[in-house]
Design goal:
The complex is a heterodimer of chains A (about 325) and B (about 210).
Chain A: H1 5-13, H2 33-39, H3 45-48, H4 50-62, E1 68-69, H5 77-81, E2 86-87, E3 96-97, H6 118-134, E4 139-145, H7 147-155, H8 157-165, H9 169-193, E5 197-201, H10 211-228, E6 233-236, H11 245-249, E7 255-258, H12 264-271, E8 276-281, H13 283-288, H14 292-305, E9 309-312, H15 322-332
Parallel strand pairs in A: 1-4, 4-5, 5-6, 6-7, 7-8, 8-9
Antiparallel strand pairs in A: 2-3
Chain B: H1 2-13, H2 20-29, H3 34-54, H4 60-77, E1 91-96, H5 104-115, E2 119-122, H6 129-139, E3 143-147, H7 155-166, E4 174-178, H8 184-189, E5 194-195, H9 199-210
Parallel strand pairs in B: 1-2, 1-3, 3-4, 4-5
The chains are: A alpha/beta (about 325), B alpha/beta (about 210).
């Protein structure tokens, strides 16, 4: 196998042949202010303009040295298309939804042409641009929000969690089922547009909800999504999910992108090669406040533990030093 | 009496929000003091809920329902309390710092503090330094709780503490901080009095500050 970024990533994603080194990948955003300045593509434009979006993603490979490019930086592309009023933030502030249009849990109206809504079209166009630019050389990662995350945006997170606690199973299931087709349609469209793999971000976050919530509500939905989406899926769920790794391995995804809170060695042992593992460098302490040496140490720990693809645990803080991000590709280039 | 109090306790722990009001009304008719209902029933129940949350047996949705149930019960029994016993155990001013719109963690801390008998004044989210300091000066809380979920907004906590010190209010208020990117080392570095990793620790800390 030639040791190109694309080959190394795809092989590691499927737990296949090992090349000369592990790949450095970013299923979630590595956009930071320094990277924006270096490539001239800034937030909030990079959320809404396909050229800026693709340029910033490309900088993750060309300037930071990652083996992947991932052009979706916010969690609100779909919620904007579904009717949330979104504040797209600034260079140093991530977007945020200002309204929850279905707080009453009424039927969600999914626009027929949802893939043509500007906030989704922009992602598809950026993926196609990246395909033309680096297809077959660098792995292109797309990203969709799962129905659980979309429900937070539609109903309001606290409201959704309260209904969950109140045992309103029908309400919860109805909303999840109404939103699931959006996730499936957007994921398949991203593959058609040029993505090599798609991240399914669905925040049934550890410490926030329990493994039993995931098992009872979301696992069957994830199994259905993975069955109906064509390409490889990377599951991203934040928090300490050690108590539900077993369930993730049954969800039909090809890889799980995990946080530092889960020890890499423990994760590798539980998962036991059933799916691949991606992560899990600490964002707030190491990447944001630490030094390149701290980053290097953690990356080597993850490699030695057997994590397949090395990267930050989640979207990095926007003022993360670029030198710290670069320390990840540096560490993987030392090989296994 | 023990059996009736136990029923109240179980009602809150299990989040039986539809039954709690009638349960509390019934027990108050039997001659059990409202103070006992609050302390040994409602507040004791929330202590158990907190312990179960810390142990990973329950999660935020269940905790929210228990807190809601406790509040419904408290609304029934509180008007019956007379004299000093009806006063709160202390006043806590809470808020999420400037630039940060996250409030679920902070709201859970508020619920748990109320469940523990504190009077809580919640300033909401995205609160600038000036507003926090003005509120501290106006309300004179015993405890100020600051929350931040973003690494980019953590430094605001330091600014608040510095400003409180500059206005000569620092000796009068204990400051506790929390939120996903915050830890004990950061709390110490910025001069806070303590850090709570979750709502249970926040309540324990507020109690220790006030001394009960």
């Amino acid at each position: 196998m030639k040791a190109t970024p694309y080959n190394l990533f795809i092989s590691a994603l499927y737990g296949g042949r090992k090349g000369i080194r592990p790949p450095a990948g970013n299923p979630t955003s590595i956009a930071c202010v320094e990277l924006m300045k270096a490539c001239g593509a800034f937030f909030p434009e990079a959320h809404l303009n396909a050229h800026a979006m693709a340029d910033l993603a490309l900088a993750g490979h060309e300037l930071a040295g990652f083996d992947t490019v991932m052009p979706e930086y916010s969690v609100h592309q779909e919620s904007a298309a579904l009717g949330c009023e979104v504040d797209w933030g600034s260079e140093t502030r991530m977007p945020d939804a200002k309204t929850a249009p279905y707080a009453d849990f009424s039927d969600v109206i999914v626009p027929e042409n949802i893939l043509e809504k500007p906030s989704l079209r922009v992602v598809l166009d950026a993926l196609s641009m990246l395909r033309r630019e680096v297809g077959g050389q660098v792995a292109i990662i797309g990203k969709v929000m799962g129905p659980w995350t979309l429900s937070y945006h539609m109903a309001g997170t606290q409201n959704f969690l309260l209904q969950l606690g109140l045992g309103e199973k029908d309400k919860i299931n109805r909303m999840l089922r109404q939103l699931m087709p959006v996730t499936i349609a957007f994921a398949n469209a991203q593959f058609r547009a040029g993505a090599d793999a798609v991240v399914l971000a669905d925040h049934a976050t550890g410490n926030l909800v329990g493994p039993y919530h995931y098992r009872d509500y979301l696992l069957p939905i994830h199994q259905e999504i993975t069955a109906r989406v064509g390409g490889p899926i990377i599951l991203h769920i934040c928090g300490n999910c050690l108590d539900r790794l077993e369930l993730f391995a049954e969800s039909g995804v090809d890889a799980y992108h995990f946080e530092w809170q889960v020890d890499a060695k423990a994760a590798v042992k539980i998962i036991d090669k059933r799916i691949s593992l991606i992560g899990n460098l600490n964002n707030p302490k190491t990447l944001f406040q630490g030094t390149p040496e701290d980053v290097h140490r953690q990356a080597r720990y993850a490699i030695e533990a057997g994590v397949d693809i090395i990267g930050p645990e989640c979207a990095v803080p926007l003022t993360t030093p670029l030198a710290n991000l670069r320390a990840i590709p540096t560490a993987v280039r030392e090989g296994y | 009496m023990k059996e009736s109090i136990q029923k109240i306790k179980e009602g809150v722990i299990e989040g039986r929000h539809k039954e709690i009001e009638s349960l509390v009304r019934e027990i108050c008719k039997t001659g059990i003091s409202p103070e006992t209902v609050i302390q040994e029933g409602l507040i004791a129940a929330m202590d158990t809920v907190g312990r179960r949350f810390s142990a990973g047996e329950i999660f935020v949705p269940e905790m929210m329902v228990s807190a809601m149930t406790m509040k419904l019960g408290l609304n029934i029994v509180k008007p019956l309390v007379t004299g000093q016993a009806g006063e709160s155990r202390g006043v806590v001013l809470m808020g999420t710092v400037k630039g940060d719109l996250h409030d679920i963690g902070k709201n859970i801390v508020v619920m748990m503090l109320e469940g523990a008998g504190f009077r809580v004044i919640d300033m909401g989210v995205d609160i600038d330094v000036e507003k926090v300091v003005a509120k501290v000066a106006e309300i004179r809380p015993q405890v100020l709780g600051l929350s931040a979920l973003l690494t980019t907004t953590m430094p605001e906590m330091k600014l608040v503490i510095e400003e409180i010190r500059a206005r000569g209010l620092r000796e009068r208020v204990k400051v506790m901080v929390g939120g996903a990117p915050v830890d004990a080392a950061f709390a110490e570095k910025i001069g806070a009095d303590g850090y709570g990793k979750d709502a249970v620790q926040a309540v324990a800390m507020a109690r220790s500050f006030i001394g009960f």
